[in-house]
Amino acid sequence: MTGIREVLAANLKENRRKLGLTQERLAEEADVSTHYIAMIETCNKYPKPEMLERLAKALGIEPCQLFSVSAAPEEALERLRQSIIADVKQVMADMRQVVRETIQETLAGKCKDKDRV
Predict the structure, then answer these.
(1) Which pLDDT score, from 0 to 100, does residue 65 have?
(2) Is CATH 1.10.260.40 the right assignment for the domain spanning 1-69?
(3) What's the pTM value of the predicted model, to 2 decimals?
(4) Residue 114: is it exposed, middle or buried by C-beta count within 10 angstroms (0-12/13-18/19+)?
(5) Among 21, 66, 89, 116, which residue has the fewest nearby CB atoms (within 10 Å)?
């Protein structure tokens, strides 16, 4: 049996990811700390009703959607699939950035070497 905190945590994280928001960006939109968002998503904090409204507004959803439970296994699988896709997209974006920076640093080093000759 999943508790209400787990449902809230999962729905908050899912809705945040659907919008492509980081915890930091959601925190800015809801005017709270990033740490607080992380604590909710890990079931270590439970927000007051006013905060639930602010979070829902920042996510563009109704507060009740933070507590909806999917009964169909197909929906759960789709949620998992979407979560994996979001994670893979983030990893790929991070990898592209590392490769881009490495290439720039390498090219900058070669240009300096040519100037010395």
Answers:
(1) 92
(2) yes
(3) 0.60
(4) exposed
(5) 116
